[in-house]
Design a protein that fits this description.
The chain has about 325 residues and is an alpha/beta fold. The N and C termini lie far apart (about 45 Å). It has a four-stranded parallel sheet with strand order 2-1-3-4, with helices on both faces. The chain folds into three domains: about 120 residues, 3-Layer(aba) Sandwich (Rossmann fold), CATH 3.40.50.10800; about 80 residues, NadA-like (Rossmann fold, 3-Layer(aba) Sandwich), CATH 3.40.50; about 80 residues, Rossmann fold (3-Layer(aba) Sandwich). It is built from 15 helices and twelve strands. It is globular.
């Protein structure tokens, strides 16, 4: 067990630079978990991958690699660790396992799912292929391994437009997010995009009227929106992009005031890096992401649970669709 002094030092080191996001009164609650998790990471030769939607004490406190779905997929394919702990949702853990079949991949809570991933099945994809036999299937990474196995290539919100363009097809099946499909179709009018009717339970709750209210109450505010949002939201935004693209926008442009129309913790994590910028926070939380906590990460490392496994026949086919995406992205 580490001494109180050591725990305090760890808390000060990790939380001190971001104390405007994690109040000092919360440090004593989080610090013992940080210390214990660091110990177990060394013992297990483990790394923690955290999505941008994780809470700041995870994102800034214990994560070794952070980013959006594309960044996590790329970095998962490069890590030399024996154990990967995915501080994200189940499809992300599956993607990490697909790209690291020889490694142990853990997810701290098996119920950390995704409304998009649960909206479509492998059988649905097979039926779409029968209906549109000439159309390649582009599967958003927010899908199960079984759906990826039925797809030609995966994409993320960062590279969806480029992936579809690179196929050179007259029409494509794009699944499962209807709003991201609509966004891609508008960027590529020469391609007929056949969409599925899935949506993100966080992003679909935003409205264009809500964005107009932000502008009215915060004159001069810059609005950044995720392409999983409905079209009326995107029409009101100053910039549309993935979580990584939004973060880059803030870092490059440094607007005086900004609102990110996406999951709430994203604003907290970017705000920690830019204390000089005013962030207006639209607090739509992802209930699945919030199932991941420091105590659950510690328990995952201590007890090596819950391990993510994928049927080898499914994994072989699903891996190809992910690898095609990475090949394209890494060439950019």
């Amino acid at each position: 067990m580490r001494s109180t002094t050591e725990v305090d030092l760890i808390a000060a080191e990790r939380f001190g630079p971001i104390k405007h996001v994690i109040p000092e009164i919360e440090w004593p609650v989080h610090a013992p978990y940080l210390a214990a998790i660091e110990k177990w990471k060394r013992e297990r030769n483990a790394v923690i991958l955290a999505h941008n939607y994780q809470t700041p004490e995870i994102y800034h406190g214990v994560a070794d690699i952070v980013g959006d779905s594309l960044a996590l997929a790329v970095e998962a394919s490069r890590t030399s660790a024996d154990v990967i702990v995915m501080a994200g949702v189940h499809f992300m853990a599956e993607s990490a396992k697909l790209l690291n079949p020889e490694k142990t991949v853990l997810i701290p809570d098996l119920e950390a799912g995704c409304s998009l991933a649960s909206s479509i099945s492998a059988a649905d994809v097979r039926l779409l292929r029968e209906r549109y036999p000439d159309a390649p299937v582009v599967s958003y990474v927010n899908t199960t391994a079984a759906v990826k196995a039925e797809s030609d290539v995966c994409c993320t919100s960062s590279n969806a437009v480029e992936i579809v363009r690179a196929l050179g097809a007259r029409r494509v099946i794009f699944l499962p997010d209807r709003y991201l499909a609509d966004y891609v179709a508008k960027q590529l009018p020469e391609v007929k995009v056949i969409a599925w009717e899935g949506s993100c339970e966080v992003h679909e709750r935003f409205t264009g009227a809500e964005v107009r209210d932000y502008r009215s109450s915060h004159p001069g505010i810059v609005v950044l929106a995720h392409p999983e949002c409905p079209p009326d939201v995107l029409a009101e935004a100053d910039f549309v992009g993935s979580t990584a693209a939004m973060s880059r926008y803030v870092g490059d442009r440094k607007p005086a005031s900004v609102v990110m129309i996406t999951e709430c913790s994203m604003s907290d994590n970017v705000a920690a890096e830019h204390p000089e910028i005013e962030f207006v926070r639209p607090c739509n939380l992802c209930p699945h992401m919030k199932r991941i906590t420091l105590p659950k990460i510690l328990e995952a490392l201590e007890n090596m649970r819950y391990e993510v496994t994928i049927d080898p026949l499914v994994a072989e086919r699903a891996r190809k669709s992910l690898e095609r995406m990475l090949e394209h992205s890494l060439q950019k």
